[in-house]
Amino acid sequence: MARPTTDFRCTECGWTSVKWVGRCGECQAWGTVVDTAEATGIIRSMKPVRVADERAARPITEIGAADVAHWPSGIREFDRVLGGGIVPGATILLSGEPGVGKSTLLLEVASRAARTGQRVLYITAEESASQVRLRAQRTGALEDNLYLAAETDLATVLGQIDQIEPQLLIVDSVQTVSSSLSEGLAGGPSQVREVAATLIRVSKDRNLPVLLVGHVTKDGSIAGPRLLEHLVDVVCHFEGDRQTALRFIRAQKNRFGPTDEVGCFEMTGDGIAEVTDPSGLFLSRSRQTVSGTCVTVAVEGRRPLPVEVQALVVPASGPQLRRVVSGVDASRVAMLLAVLERRAGLPFGKLDVYVSTVGGIRIIEPGADFAIALALASAQRDLPLPPTLAAVGEISLAGEIRPASNGKQRIAEAKRLGFDTVLDAGAGQLADAVARYVPKRSRSAPAAEDAAPF
């Protein structure tokens, strides 16, 4: 009789081995190589089980749509990202850098859901119950229907669910809860996989929405096995800069809605507040027109955001030129400098260049090329652009202004904010736009700064 063989497979990359090893030979991940039968839950000698009538498969037309209807969380920006609200039985994973405000946001979601009469169970595995209570008191999130428990054992968490019977469950965080049925420390691949699979099964059986907090690694990816992102229904990433109070939440995966929406929040002393109209956050409030500034309209998801781009050029202070950028792509700025010098005749060879955005927002889309180019030209010639001018478009290496995506939406937003002149692909070539709005100084006219020959 042939000897039965056992295969081992990596849960991260799928690499197989005839024997167990502690480290995957392909992706070099530790603790991810498991028995094939254990990984898939399939036993070769398994016999079919008779399915109960209430669990029998039904035609899809007989399944009611009310079972997957969204219910609002009370935070419109969060509902925008989720596609309209929280779906009963859905598992939502919220990840982000430490200190960005994940727990504060979910505590606000929990309090607003409890305010509507729903029972909410908040499991904190990182802080004590008194610490969470202090934060809830500071942010005004104290509600009678909000139940709080500090637990790190999965079995105890399940017992809390049976006792409270919540209508919304929040676990902060999934990497700090452990199960006695799985080996390894809390946060390891096997533990995270076991805890997440159990909570998802409870979510589906009870039609209970579950919000999970996920840690991130040094490179920004979600800690734990990649399988975690496949198991959950929605993956949201909470991002922001510690130097500014602005926060963004984006959906990287959403089975019930779009993945191109962005929610905007602001961290305040009283907690986190949603910003329904962030139009004025990225525009300077100075009434004096200065050179080197131009307004563009960026698109974050489906939302147009007016952003002011600022540029500054000074004579080079050393043999090596400086190109310092903040909030924009350095490679695109270098390309625009070359296009301006070659196509528009603006020399930057002896100048240090600084480019930044107002408000700390980061623009990586090509639709802001036109505004960056005009800001650089305005700074080089020390001539301010008209205060009611905005520019939207992509700049090619030939100096052509190409249309940006969602152009009509961008122009409509700029018009709404009072920008009378909106330059787009209809402006022609970049050299023509520079010559019209940033004209070359005449020889007789006094120059404010003779940094470079014009």
UniProtKB/TrEMBL annotation:
Signal peptide: none
GO terms of biological process kind: recombinational repair
Gene3D superfamilies: 3.30.230.10, P-loop containing nucleotide triphosphate hydrolases
UniProt-annotated stretches for the region Lon-protease-like: 352-454
Keywords in alphabetical order: ATP-binding, DNA damage, DNA repair, DNA-binding, Hydrolase, Metal-binding, Nucleotide-binding, Stress response, Zinc, Zinc-finger
Pfam families registered for this protein in UniProt: AAA_25, Zn_ribbon_LapB
Keyword Nucleotide-binding: yes
Segments forming domain RecA family profile: 67-216
Comment on protein domains: The middle region has homology to RecA with ATPase motifs including the RadA KNRFG motif, while the C-terminus is homologous to Lon protease.
Function text: DNA-dependent ATPase involved in processing of recombination intermediates, plays a role in repairing DNA breaks. Stimulates the branch migration of RecA-mediated strand transfer reactions, allowing the 3' invading strand to extend heteroduplex DNA faster. Binds ssDNA in the presence of ADP but not other nucleotides, has ATPase activity that is stimulated by ssDNA and various branched DNA structures, but inhibited by SSB. Does not have RecA's homology-searching function.
Protein name: DNA repair protein RadA
